# Entry
Amino acid sequence: MPCSKKNQITIGGVPGAGKTTTAKKLAKILGYNFYSVGDFRRKIAVEKFGTDINTLNSLEEAKLLLKDLDLNEMSDMDILSKVEHLGLVENDIPNLRKIMNVDTDIEADNMQKELGIKSNNFIIEGRLAWKFCPSSFKVYFDCDPEVGAERILRDNRDTEKNYYSVDEVKEANLVRIESDKKRYREKYGEGYDCYNPKNFNYVINTTNLTKDEVVTKILKAYETFLGIGDE
# Structure
């Protein structure tokens, strides 16, 4: 049964829009717990596959592409020929064979579902958090692709691969978004588009906003959502 509590915030949106920074600030102001599904999946990527989150996402997409084939009957090069357009290389094939029998999403999915049902006073950042916590205040972050790429490059995040240009980041972001859309659509169905703003209560474009302005706008919208805004 879906949770009926409302003091929950789920955050999604495009890369580089400031989701994590804002979520942590909001959590501190509100006294909420903060969770990141991205951090959880990065941990899975490193601990179970010795790789990064982008490669893990590509492996998941390749898994769907090859689900009807018997990889035991195929050579590594035969497999690679079918998935190299996803950015995978020969060294990724052992992990691809491994992931065919592993569901890396289920742990993250179950964590979000449990939070939505049993917990309160939290903020969770994740692509499908809005779906697994249906009574939450759902916030979608958007921004100009160029600006988002510049932010990621400037931040030099140690959880991502090393990028050397804005164009490289933009391309990686585009690949990531399309990979997410395809994987979630094929795995869960058409209603799980994590990049459709219509699935959210509040949409904010952070392109020309300061971090403080973003926080202020979301807090005001959240108060309205809870019914405690100005009369």
In short: The chain has a mean pLDDT of 89. Residues 141 and 159 are 20 Å apart (CA to CA). Residues 50-99 form one domain. The longest strand covers residues 8-13.
